[in-house]
Write a structure and sequence with these properties.
The protein has 234 residues and is of the alpha/beta class. 29% of the residues lie in helices and 21% in strands. Strand 2 and strand 3 form a beta hairpin.
């Protein structure tokens, strides 16, 4: 079985400028993900898909391959992620003549994801063999209890209702938020789908801290504090 690891890291960023290569506690942000997947050791190849030569150079320094620069149409603010991963798989397979069985995509803005998280998610994928597995965290907001929608008249209604009235959070079904940290795909499903939700999906549950995605200056400073204070180490 052959496994391809992809890390998608374009040069532009709306929320936090150059976030993928910002120095976080002395190391570029993307390096945390490269180091984690290298330490995991389960990928036959680790590819960074980027449109930036600067990101490519840093990725190479930390041991990932950048055999192409991402096409401009896949490097815009509005470009969806699935086509970016599909492009990376096609390129690697055509270049090498090898076919991959599993594709694992790791978000470069999740520096606290641990090797144990990667292995745990991969083990679950191999045991259950879904079309796709993605990581989640338990959601604090719950559509059965705290999340509302507005009807046509502008009145608030619960997003989802249980059969009987619920007065405590503990009594409603648990719901989960996709944290974006990790996706594992069956190769054939990935290459023939336009949505994560077109096939059978499994989830791997991560804790709140490991799930942090750096998108803003506040996210960055929070994780920087934890790492400098040695409060947390992935």
């Amino acid at each position: 079985m052959r496994t391809l690891a992809t890390i998608c890291a374009r040069g532009g960023s709306r929320g936090l400028k150059d976030k993928n290569i910002l120095s976080l506690n002395g190391k570029p942000l993307i390096a945390y993900t490269i180091d984690a997947v290298k330490s995991w050791g389960g990928a036959n190849r680790i590819i960074v898909s980027t449109d930036s030569r600067v990101i490519a150079s840093i990725a190479n320094k930390y041991g990932a391959e950048t055999p192409f620069l991402r096409p401009p149409e896949l490097a815009t603010d509005t470009a969806a992620k699935l086509p970016v991963i599909q492009h990376a798989v096609r390129f690697c397979e055509e270049e090498s003549g090898l076919r991959y069985d599993v594709v694992i995509d790791l978000q470069p803005t999740s520096p606290l994801r641990s090797v144990d998280d990667i292995q745990g998610a991969f083990d679950l994928f191999m045991e259950t063999r879904p079309d796709v597995l993605y990581t989640v965290k338990e959601s604090k907001d719950n559509p059965y209890f705290t999340m509302v929608e507005l009807d046509e008249s502008g009145f608030a209604r619960l997003s989802k209702k249980t059969e009987s009235e619920v007065f405590r959070r503990q009594d409603v079904p648990k719901v989960y938020t996709i944290n974006g940290s990790l996706y594992i795909f069956d190769r054939d499903f990935l290459m023939n789908t336009s949505s994560l939700h077109n096939g059978n999906a499994r989830v791997y549950i991560m804790d709140e801290l490991s799930s942090v995605d750096i998108d803003t200056e506040l996210d960055f400073r929070f994780i920087e504090f934890l790492l400098r204070d040695k409060t947390y180490s992935p």
